[in-house]
Write a structure and sequence with these properties.
heterodimer, A: alpha/beta, Rossmann fold, 2 domains, nine-stranded mixed β-sheet, two-stranded antiparallel sheet, 7 helices, about 30% strand, B: about 325 residues, seven-stranded parallel β-sheet, about 25% helix, about 25% strand, binds flavin-adenine dinucleotide, binds adenosine monophosphate
Amino acid sequence: MTGLRIIVCAKQVPDPEAPASAVDVDPEKRRVTVKGLMPVINPLDEVALEAALQIKEKYGGKVTVLSVGERLSENVLRKVLAAGADELILVQDEGLDDLDPYSTALLLFKAIEKLGTFDLILTGRESADWGSGQVGLMLAELLGIPAINWVKRIEVVNGAIRAAKVVHGGYDLVEAPLPALLTVTNEFGELRYVSIMALKRARDKPVDAWTLSDVDVDPSTLRKMEVAELFKPRFERMCTIITGKTPEEVGERLAVKLVEELHSLRGR
Amino acid sequence: MVLTMSGGVLSVMEINEEDNSLDNTSFELLEAGGVLSKEAGTTISAAIIGRKASHHADNVARYVDRVYVVEHEALASFNPYLHLHALEKVLKLEGPSYILMGHTYKGVDIAARLAARLKAPLTTDCIGLELDPQTRLLKRRRQVYGGAVIATFIYQGEPQLVTLRPKVWRGRAEPRQVMGDIIQVDLDINSSASKLRVIERVKEEAVRLDDADVIVSGGRGLGGPDGFKELEKLRSALAKGFKKVEIGSSRPPVDKGWISSSRQVGLTGEKVSPMIYIAVGISGATQHIVGMEKSKLVVAINSDKGAPIFTMADIGAVGDYRQILPSFIKKLEELL
Ligand SMILES: Cc1cc2nc3c(=O)[nH]c(=O)nc-3n(C[C@H](O)[C@H](O)[C@H](O)COP(=O)(O)OP(=O)(O)OC[C@H]3O[C@@H](n4cnc5c(N)ncnc54)[C@H](O)[C@@H]3O)c2cc1C
Ligand SMILES: Nc1ncnc2c1ncn2[C@@H]1O[C@H](COP(=O)(O)O)[C@@H](O)[C@H]1O
């Protein structure tokens, strides 16, 4: 085979590593508001990109990253080019945020149709914001191609995909003919280190920007998520911090306190 | 307007392939489905799909009006396409308005594909389910933004499709006076039924964290796989005082291959509720907290006194775990 055409679907999300206090809700408008949070590439889509880059390195090919959204940050998404992707395509238009998973899958489907041929599509297992974990499998159904969910290892054997799919207490070794779609899970490993130099170089690389009409989608066919109610749960506890002159002392006192608390817990 | 939401509730059972047992998730789905069918004033049915599905028919029939049994050699191992194929047969016969599945690796794998095929809105990993009495639509409650927010979704459309987070419902379905009907469903499986081939199941470490009395969890702050050796010493010290003490983990050690993924606690891992949860070198990201917040007593050891885990702990120690653990372990051995 002379190289694989690989498409990675990557979503832009508010930084999920931010403290919970940075995320707030507007119960009236039924919207989540994030204050001063940098957008990032969905962490599991970075993992999917890493998988794509490894496949490209091993078997040759081309990696295209595809992202759909209302206000996408080119600067953030260019990281994929710096990491080694060959091409970045943004489908950007009004009203494309907070779509329901099926509509998102439909948009990706239309964009992929426009792209033409491909051998492999990789998505993340789930997105970090609304995190439905559905878009990948739905996209595969729309394309009519096989999909393997929650993949942590990938090989290409005689023109077919052989993947380790995470199941409870192990994995299933599964084979599917190409073209196929895989949703990649965190066990695959993290995205390689991307240097500042590489990020700088990626600034000059071209990025394709498409709109709804470019991908031939009628906005009235897209549905939003329907949120009826939103609230912030509270998890807080009162913490007793154990002190001591030395770490050894802290350790000992920690044990004493733990056993004390345990007694009162059991006493109750 | 056509009559909508006139069908019943269908709960899709889960069988453990290895020993052909009915997974506890199944009883949770029967419980949730039973409540829903009462609220909606409809029937409840169940689908059992597997190589020896009929083995469970009588048992499940005690809880529902109808049991559909789809039995076939090809269902011996889990293949999402074949299981979906079987489920679609059941749907044709039953025509449910509500479909409940488990949020397990199987349930998710089938539900998202089914949702695409039926164009039925799916909500995954629900932690709450209610019927809106007026519209008869489901109110689907789930965690979003890593658990920092809880959202309730309502979608038009039929069937209403959800996967339920395991162990939120307790699996206490009520048996009825009269057994439901048992309906055998024939399955024809030709070569085009599946788009993939399951070669083999490879077993790795399979631990259960959900019934542990104590969990000692390590995070990225352990600095490497050797850190878990230190935690193992703590684990065995605690094992003198408790029946089941297990090692747990945040996600980075799993991603880095320091420990097996079955030990991951959190949003994408296990949801645990031990008597004691000890978090070592874990910062306390929301995605981790939602997996352990039901623990009775939380202890945190972290070198950063500003780490969010301290807002979620009952007892905390600030410092390098390498320096704190030895004396902590020694003293525990004395006291327990
Ligand atoms: C969709 C999604 C799902 C996720 N699911 C999960 C999940 O299920 N479970 C999960 O855990 N995470 C999950 N995460 C990841 C989560 O966002 C955090 O990245 C992760 O929990 C951080 O792990 P950590 O606390 O071990 O690492 P870090 O956040 O890097 O924290 C390490 C901590 O160790 C401390 N430390 C460092 N050295 C020492 C030392 N010598 N002694 C003591 N303390 C030390 C540091 O002060 C720091 O607080 C998910 C993320 C996403 C986006
Ligand atoms: N707006 C988007 N643009 C590109 N890819 C997306 C988008 N939304 C979801 N995906 C892909 O689908 C996966 C699952 O998303 P979700 O179903 O939202 O959890 C993500 O990890 C991405 O790979």
